[in-house]
Amino acid sequence: MTQLTRRTFRACCLAATAAVAATAVFHSDAPAQAGSRFAFEPVMPELKRAVQYAGTSTELCFEELRDRGVPFEVAEAKRTVETPIRLTGPVRGVAFKATYRDDPRPPGPWTIMDCRLALAIDDLAQLLSAHGVVEAEYLSLYRPSPGKPGVRHGAGRAIDLATVKLADGTLYSVQHDFHGRVGAQSCGEGADPARKDTPGARFWRDVVCGLDDRGSFNLVLSPNHDFGHRDHLHLEVRSGIRWFLVQ
Ligand SMILES: [Zn+2]
Q1: Distance from the CA of 125 to the center of ligand 1, in angstroms?
Q2: Ramachandran class of 88: left when φ > 0, alpha when ψ lies in -120 to 50, beta otherwise
Q3: Is residue 1 included in any domain, yes or no?
Q4: For residue 245, how far is its CA from the centre of ligand 1 (angstroms)?
């Protein structure tokens, strides 16, 4: 896509939200490469946030993070990560931390992400913050793996979100509170209800479907997608695709 200029970035993304909302029901056929009946290509994918983020230059990405007040530092180079960074503090009042790794010093490679993912994580943090979340634990961001540039965890383009803590101490984990069913539809008209109607299940539906509305990630995969996602949400900003998959 054409590189965005600094002046047009916000106007572009705001326009994207309105345009996508207006055209959300008119999807073209699900792209075959996604391998899911829930995948769809919007009428104007270039207006969706995830597609905008994936096409952002390093310079503009840094500027945007600073403008948004996202605390970050440039991280050590990883061959497969285009612009490696680390968060250095809470985002919108939400502290992101790696599960099972309480000691952040020295910071491990698992806390590295590509700058473009951080833009989407800022959107995620706004959504979580509105629900009273103060801490979000993830299983991984970057992890060493072969693969295409701009794709999945090897490129630092995905976060596996596992558990959140609210300001009152309430914990909601995907594993214990999502109450999903493999094959179920998560959002939109005809969505399947959770197996149990609990505050935690409602919270996770709100997160998944709130992200669907925002279009910040190309892929939002929950326990409804497959057994591999029984304990986390896979949230990814992927380069080179125009389709979305939220399940
Ligand atoms: Zn993942």
Answers
A1: 18
A2: alpha
A3: no
A4: 14
Q: How much is the average pLDDT of 168-193?
A: 96
pLDDT, tens digit, for every residue of 28-62? 445 666 778 899 999 999 999 999 999 999 999 99
pLDDT in tens, 130-164: 999 999 999 999 998 887 889 999 999 999 999 99
Contact 166, 128 (CB under 8 A): no
The full 3-state SS of 44-68, as one line of letters, equals: CHHHCHHHHHHCCCHHHHHHHHHHH
Residue 178 forms part of a structural domain: yes
How many angstroms separate the CA atoms of 193 and 201, rounded?
Answer: 9
Question: How many domains would you assign to the chain?
Answer: 1
143: CA distance to ligand 1 center in Å? Answer: 10
Provide the mean pLDDT of the chain.
88
- Residue 220 C-alpha to ligand 1 middle, in angstroms? 9
The answer to whether the CB of 186 falls within 8 A of the CB of 246 is yes
Range of the domain at 129: 6-246
**94 - beta bridge partners?**
91
pLDDT of 220 > 70? The answer is yes
* pLDDT exceeds 80 at position 215: yes
Give the DSSP per-residue string, 149-160.
Answer: TTSTGGGT-EEE
